[in-house]
Design a protein that fits this description.
With about 600 residues, this protein is of the alpha+beta class. The chain has 3 domains: about 220 residues, no CATH class; about 170 residues, no CATH class; about 50 residues, no CATH class. It contains 13 helices and 20 strands. Strand 9 and strand 10 form a beta hairpin. Helix 3 packs antiparallel against helix 8. The radius of gyration is 25 Å and the shape is globular.
Length: about 600
């Protein structure tokens, strides 16, 4: 193979990254469902001829590690029969996937009869059958309840679609128009990836293309190894919890031990809970994604998004645990486990690199699924509102946590109110930030997001996946915990308002409303070291109350002008001896 100069390699690297983004944009623009089009729950990537990921679009980070595992199982089954025009489909968590709702579409890319790359598009689908609308329920107890399960299959064979597969898929989902529309959007994204690869080969030649992609993987490995080598050697552990197992059982333990030795890092999840009854079990590929995401997030170098990232990392996740489940575990709601694993890995990294790691955010997106049937255009059809509610960040070592921004482990968006009300029989009656919900600290945790839905007609299934009511988002370096979550279901009759569990499958009736408050972010640093002017600004913006300014931060403000009373503030802080009231420390961590 020819040697390639660094400038050409850099141009090809950026062209591949741009191709991944172009694929993502094509999928976004052609998708049918709100879960893809508005919540942005999808990813795109390119792999080399051997299935190693060479680029990923700026999409969901938690899909980063899933592609290499998926490609490995594809090669095991079809490595001998990959032909031009073939397209593959898969969503089986035990055949390289993550959970039933995520469908992988993979298209081999050929140049003059030689396989040179793969285009991959992964999307979370609105419904894939199963026990309940949305194909996601915390109280599912086996994968057969999660939905329609597809191992690796050829969706297209030599350019010809397998209509029997399309027919089978259409017959097993509640909203076939949206599901099949999103599959075709994924196909469009793969075609865009194929075109981009062909354009690069036309410009530089196939040998240069292959050399550049191989060099790019090695280059990324060197960058990651070099950065880890600059970190102090050591072992740091952290423990965090999910509130329950989805069926009312006790808390679910997530334990990780991070070991840095030389230029390698090991994440050992031994000590985490055994595989649970509910549907929050994670596959090994998803666990690997979490580790890569967290390690990459604390790096100071700009690291390309490709498979070279994983080479210096070792992930230990015992089979049969909640972080590496085995058949027939349910996993449709495994996203919350990923978020909790990310919190635990960040918590462990905080012992290693305290000046780079933020306090815990809201604990991950809340899922609210409302689905039913209605008469439309003379026929009865199913509808499913799938909200991927985005929350907030924890305080950071140099600034406050972001308010109302998606968790750093994800790239997602809240469905616009107008979109939800136009497409579904619901009304959004409340949506905003919650005062005093961010953890106190030198840098304040982000505020909770609240939202309220009212069902306008008929009966509907209601599914909720939330967390962090019993185990609040932790603060770091003396920062306080964030506010915890709550779910309230109100009925229009005389019945009392129900306080629902954090993870539940239930029902709504016409006129009922659901109120959900997400957790707030943890604080970073001693609250009594926060600049009083920043506290005053928060009070002015109604993010912090006058009472919290005094009790949590030791800052006295004039109630009329909100000016800082510097003398009274100094006396109050001195009286507390450097401690805020109340001061909250992490509930779990070593």
């Amino acid at each position: 193979m020819p040697e390639v100069d660094p400038i050409t390699r850099e141009i090809v690297q950026n062209a591949l990254a741009a191709a991944g983004d172009e694929m993502a944009l094509a999928l976004y623009r052609t998708a049918y469902s709100t879960i893809v089009r508005d919540c942005l729950d999808y990813s795109t990537s390119l792999c080399d001829a051997n299935g190693e990921m060479i680029a990923q679009g700026v999409t969901i980070p938690l899909h980063l590690g899933a592609v290499p595992y998926a490609m490995a199982t594809l090669f095991q089954k079809y490595g001998h029969s990959l032909e031009p025009g073939d397209v593959f489909i898969m969503n089986d968590p035990f055949d390289g996937g993550m959970h039933i709702p995520d469908i992988f579409i993979v298209q081999p890319i050929f140049w003059e009869g030689e396989r040179v790359a793969f285009a991959v598009a992964t999307a979370h689908h609105l419904d894939l059958g199963g026990r309940l609308p949305g194909s996601s329920a915390c109280d599912n107890t086996e994968i057969f309840q999660d939905g329609f399960r597809m191992p690796w299959l050829k969706l297209y064979r030599r350019g010809a679609p397998d209509e029997s597969l399309f027919t089978l898929l259409r017959a097993n989902v509640r909203v076939p128009h949206q599901t099949l529309g999103d599959v075709r959007a994924q196909l469009a994204a793969c075609h865009i990836g194929e075109r981009a690869v062909h354009d690069l080969i036309r410009r530089y030649g196939v040998d240069t293309f292959k050399t550049c992609t191989a060099d790019l993987l090695d280059y990324t490995e060197r960058l990651v190894s070099a950065e880890i080598a600059r970190w102090p050697d050591g072992v740091h552990s952290f423990v965090d919890y999910m509130d329950n197992d989805g069926l009312g059982g006790g808390p679910v333990r997530i334990e990780v031990k991070i070991t840095v030795e030389g230029d390698g890092l090991t994440a050992d999840f031994t000590g985490s809970s055994p595989q649970i009854r509910g549907a929050m079990n994670s596959t090994l590929s998803f666990t690997a994604s979490v580790v890569a995401l967290a390690v990459r997030a604390v790096m100071q170098q700009d690291i390309p998004n490709n498979g070279g990232m994983f080479r210096p990392l070792t992930i230990i996740a015992p089979a049969g645990t909640v972080v590496n489940c085995v058949m027939p575990a349910a996993s449709s709601m495994r996203g919350v486990t990923g978020f909790r694993m990310a919190d635990a890995v960040f918590g462990a990294l905080a012992g290693l690199l305290p000046d780079r790691v933020p306090a815990a955010g809201e604990g991950g997106n809340t899922l609210v699924i409302i689905g039913g049937q209605r008469e439309r255009e003379g026929r009865r059809t199913s509808w499913i509102l799938y909200e991927l509610l985005s929350g907030t960040w924890g305080g950071r070592p140099d600034r406050d946590g972001n308010d109302g921004l998606c968790n750093p482990a994800n790239v997602a968006s809240n469905i616009p109110i107008e979109e939800a009300e136009a497409e579904y029989p619901v009304r959004i009656e409340r949506y905003g930030l919650v005062q005093d919900s961010g953890g106190a600290g030198r840098f304040r945790g982000g505020l909770s997001v609240e939202r309220q839905w009212r069902l306008l007609q008929g009966e509907a299934h209601l599914g909720i996946r939330s967390d962090r009511r019993e185990h609040a988002p932790f603060g770091l370096q003396g920062g306080g915990t964030g506010e915890t979550s709550i779910n309230l279901l109100h009925h229009p009759d005389s019945r009392p308002t129900d306080t629902l569990a954090t993870m539940i499958s239930t029902a709504m009736g016409e006129g009922d409303w659901l109120y959900h408050r997400m957790p707030g972010g943890g604080g970073w640093g001693d609250p009594l070291t926060r600049d009083p002017a920043l506290v005053a600004r928060d009070v002015l913006n109604e993010k912090v109350s006058l009472t919290a300014a005094r009790d949590r931060y030791g800052v006295v403000l004039d109630p009329a002008t909100l000016a800082v009373d510097e003398a009274a503030t100094a006396v109050l802080r001195a009286a507390r001896g450097g401690r805020g009231e109340p001061v909250c420390s992490p509930r779990a961590g070593t």
